[in-house]
Give the backbone structure.
Amino acid sequence: MNDDLRMNWSVRSIAAIFLGNVLYALAVKVFLLPANLVSGGATGIALAANHLTGVSVSGFLFLVNMSMLILGLIVLGKAFVATTLASTFLIPAALEVFDRLLGDFVLTDDILLCTLFAGLGVGVSLGIVIRTGASTGGMDIPPLILYKCFRVPVSVSLYAFDVCILLLQAPFQEAENILYGIVFVLLSAIALDKTMMIGTTQTEVKIMSGKSEEIREAILKQLDRGVTLLNAEGGYLHDKSQMIFSVISNRELFKLEKIVHGIDPASFMVVTRVSEVKGRGFSMDKRAL
């Protein structure tokens, strides 16, 4: 990778980290706080502290993030801290800026709308940050420490912490708000997962046909996609044939089906959606022959 490419990647990553953290703070200010929703993670702890002590959410969030950052530095090392440093400062800072700019502004009093848009906003913003390879810090750090020291699965401890944080807010929240908070946490997790998959899903196809050679040439020439020929044997008649394996973009599926059925209407095709593909033509440039 040359210096220009490395610089462009760095600029894009920094921009994405900045955008993700600012969007996160905006979703918290505009939707999460006005609806008085419960939340998991460091934000949930800050909300609980705000109700108990009156300390600003942004200030307590900064304290939690800094504490977790120091803990991560001690246990996980400097390389990990470097990826979490931006979020540690950006989220509280952006939240404080929005708090000063927007004041008591309320976009909607509908708690359902606030729940839906808070979940979408938080999930998408965290997905943007994580896609760059950075960490959001905060309460993401203890599960990583538990995994490193005791091999406790990250997903298990992460959900356990979120449940504890939700329960921490239960005494000063109505039962309805707790239920909406659970919906918020679930929706943000779904939005995060979908954001992580944007642009990475591809389509895998397996084709069985007596005209495999013609189909192979058509895929190479008309779609400019690589193919792999696998020796196959029918389970009933034990007839020998070749199975065509290829990975294409989602948009190319219709064109591929048209090509294959045009050559062999009786062909057998299996289509599978794959979450990520690495290699030439996808994560790497194609190599000219």
Notes: The mean pLDDT is 83. The beta strands are 202-208, 228-233, 240-248, 268-274.
